Amino acid sequence: TDLATFSHDGNYTPEQTIDLLKLYLERKPTDKEIYKLLTLCTLVSVMWYSWAVFKMAVDGPQGIIKFKPYRDLYLEYAIIMHNESKKYE
Hints:
Blueprint: H1 2-9, H2 14-25, H3 31-58, H4 60-85
Helix pairs in contact: 1-3, 3-4
């Protein structure tokens, strides 16, 4: 989960995330390891997406203005990582 959070916070692409995993493991990762990391990236992003939606709901009109860009970014990242993870199932 640490690598997934790091990738999410750095807005890493799937390719950059896989490269990070290679550096971390000091070897070529298996498809299962790549799948797991990309899935964790998806889940981290969904968590932050949910947080942004919550903030939009409780902070009223100002919350919508402030947190909508985050919501959209996190959803897009989750979709990208989820779609990429399917290649390693």
